[in-house]
Write a structure and sequence with these properties.
Structural class: alpha/beta
Number of helices: 14
Mean pLDDT: 92
Number of strands: 10
Distance between the termini: 58 Å
Strand content: 15-25%
CATH superfamily of the largest domain: Spore Coat Polysaccharide Biosynthesis Protein SpsA, Chain A
CATH class of the largest domain: Alpha Beta
Order of helices and strands: EHEHEHEEHEEEEHHEHHHHHHHH
Number of domains: 2
CATH topology of the largest domain: Spore Coat Polysaccharide Biosynthesis Protein SpsA, Chain A
Helix content: 40-55%
């Protein structure tokens, strides 16, 4: 099917939520669309519900595949999409009836590679609005993304690192070979967005909250993350994957010069590690070792830690330690770090981390 918009819905054991989601898509004010529902090896009534919807609306296409995770399911849908633009909807969410019409209008008027809207987070428990998980961004268009120096209010910063509040020009995705990384069965949206930014030329955003984002769903992976945050080894792995991709496609140097890489480092890693207002991550010795290895790889790719001297004192010291963690420190060194770890604020946090990240002290 050739359509203005292809909407990809990856589905795995989401039978209780599908009717609400599919209804919101079939009632779009934009009629020129196709809905590609990818059944990712569900073991509940998901396939039957999808087929019932396909019988009711000819724009719905159901594709069955063995379970491979969200990234693989989205990639399956992307390979089949025939629309001028592509959008993604998670099957436990739903959207306003005007969402894709509004996004398409803005995308075409702005000639944007990616166009985003706001969203409303709500609780699966009682339907209450969750402001923490909602976004109503300032409207804007960025006409030359690659020439931008990082700024807090940049258009791309207003768009959120999620896949489902956006409309992507299909030609842009295909020209740059952009797909979700299949090995990320969790936390895949961030990695995909960081890859997209290395190629995007024009971006657009509208403030309207057109997507309804379900949170606090029992059994969802995101439920634990809402309380504790994404596991740090996975955060580091995503950052490493994106940085390796930036280097491969020739964007890393530009990203370093314009401050984007430094921002990614701070946002994804340094804030989680060095913020004294957050509990120290509870990781096993093996996980501390994996985190240490990923961080060392990242700095080997991005360059020497000296390049990050513009950071504050303890952020910079942490960068130096992550680039070259202590190897087999002696008893006196570990005792000294333990004493200094009692200091307040970021100084104490730094020395606690130094003990955790040393090659013989992780997790102890």
């Amino acid at each position: 099917m050739s359509a203005a918009v292809s909407i990809i819905v990856p589905c795995y054991n989401v039978a209780p939520y599908l009717d609400k989601c599919m209804e919101s898509l079939t009632l779009q004010t934009l009629g020129d669309l196709e809905i590609i529902s990818v059944n990712d090896g569900s073991g509940d009534d998901t396939p039957a519900i999808l087929r019932a919807w396909a019988e009711r609306d000819g724009r719905i296409r159901v594709v069955d595949r063995e379970n491979g995770g969200l990234s693989a399911a989205r990639n399956t849908g992307m390979a089949l999409a025939g629309g001028e633009y592509i959008g993604f909807v998670d099957p436990d969410d739903y959207v306003e009836h005007s969402m894709y019409g509004r996004l398409l209008e803005k995308a075409r008027r702005s000639d944007a590679d990616v166009t985003a809207c706001g969203y409303t987070g709500f609780s699966d428990r009682d339907g209450s609005i969750l402001e923490k998980w909602s976004l109503s961004p300032e409207e804007g268009v960025e006409e030359n993304v690659q020439a931008c120096v990082f700024q807090e209010n940049a258009v791309w910063r207003r768009m959120a690192a999620v896949a489902w509040n956006k409309l992507y020009k299909r030609e842009f995705l295909e020209r740059n070979g952009l797909r979700f990384e299949p090995r990320f069965r969790q936390g895949e949206d961030d990695a995909f967005w960081l890859m997209v930014l290395a190629h995007a030329t024009r971006l657009a955003v509208i403030p309207d909250q057109l997507y309804w984002y379900r949170r606090q769903r029992k059994g969802a992976i995101s439920l634990a993350w809402e309380e504790k945050g994404c596991p740090l080894p996975l955060v580091a792995d995503r950052l490493l994957h994106a940085t390796a991709y930036w280097k491969k496609c020739g964007w890393l140097e530009s990203g370093l010069e314009r401050g984007w890489v430094l921002r990614a480092l701070r946002h994804y890693l340094l804030v989680r590690l060095l913020n004294p207002g957050q509990p120290l991550p509870q990781l096993s010795e093996e996980e501390w070792g994996r985190l240490r290895g990923k961080c060392r790889e990242w700095f080997a790719l991005a360059g020497e830690a000296e390049a990050f001297r513009t950071l504050g004192k303890w952020d910079f010291e942490l960068c130096r330690m992550l680039a070259s963690p202590p190897e087999h420190p002696g008893f006196l060194s570990r005792a000294w770090w333990k004493l200094l770890s009692r200091c307040r604020g970021r100084r104490g946090r730094y020395y606690r981390l130094k003990g955790k990240l040393s090659s013989c002290g992780g997790g102890k």
